[in-house]
Write a structure and sequence with these properties.
single chain; 80% helix; mainly alpha
């Protein structure tokens, strides 16, 4: 019981660390591709150091798919955070369970229940509200990229589920390395040349992505799935709050409403799924 409590506190800390990404990305004065590349370079180095004895990079279809999807998630999330509000970027990414529910029957042979369609409708309705607010051209494309983050997150989840016997950390490190490869043309031309840029990238790569994943891996083995999911909803809640306090960026009214719908739908779907599993 004491270890379970420590794991719960650790998962909450993980969610809070992940929620700081929006503010840090906003503050680093580099382009999205440069931020994503430098962050992934530092994160890959940190994870290789921490997990070097437990890695397996043998190529399997699931592992390759997970790595590619994770790289897409990292790139689209950073670009979306730069182009639209942090709230839109993180909350639209949290529509991923919709795509998982839609694709799981075809990709994994896992049936989507009738009740899931209500969850899907509610989440899609919430997602649509993000586009009701008045947006600049860049804000609109930022929202589109944020939807892409959700798609990549779903693809990553499906691939990790399909290759659940594989090493999850290896797939994540491979995704970071693919991100670095995609960002190479930007890294040489955009070196961090200020204390703010160096500190921000160091924090994003080593702490926010590197150490937090090590903490997540330890906690997820000791927590029930529902407990982990509920604690992780701290991320989309705290992310825009931190950006509002530290950067002065406020989400639109409709985005707040849409975000509340998305978070509520994802949470209730997880609770319902957990209840059904226990009843079975």
């Amino acid at each position: 019981m004491r270890e379970n409590a420590r794991a719960a506190w650790g998962m909450a800390a993980t969610a809070l660390l992940w929620s700081t990404g929006g503010l840090a990305i906003k503050l680093v004065p580099l382009s999205p591709m440069a931020v994503a590349g430098w962050r992934s370079l530092l994160s890959a180095a940190t994870l290789l150091l921490l997990f070097r004895a437990r890695l397996d990079f043998r190529p399997t279809p699931a592992r390759l798919g997970a790595a590619a999807a994770y790289a897409g998630l990292l790139l689209t999330n950073v670009a979306a955070t730069k182009l639209t509000t942090a709230a839109n970027a993180i909350l639209l990414a949290y529509t991923a369970p919709v795509y998982v529910a839609l694709l799981a029957p075809y990709c994994l042979g896992e049936k989507t229940r009738q009740a899931d369609w209500l969850f899907i409708a509610a989440t899609l309705g919430g997602m649509g509200l993000f586009f009701v607010d008045k947006l600049s051209a860049s804000g609109f494309w930022g929202n589109i990229l944020a939807v892409g983050s959700g798609l990549c997150y779903a693809a990553f989840t499906l691939c990790m589920r399909a290759g659940r016997e594989d090493s999850p950390v290896s797939a994540v490190i491979a995704g970071h390395l693919l991100t670095v490869l995609a960002a190479v043309p930007f890294l040489a031309g955009e070196l961090p040349d200020s204390v703010l840029a160096l500190a921000g990238l160091g924090y994003l790569g080593i702490v926010q992505q590197g150490l937090s994943l090590a903490l997540y891996v330890w906690c997820i083995k000791r927590l029930p799935a529902l407990s982990a999911m509920l604690l992780m909803t701290l991320e989309p809640i705290c992310n825009p709050l931190l950006v509002a306090i530290g950067y002065g960026e406020l989400p639109g009214t409709w985005a707040v409403v849409g975000g509340a719908v998305v978070v509520a739908a994802v949470t209730l779907r997880g609770a319902a799924g957990r209840g059904a599993a226990q009843a079975a």
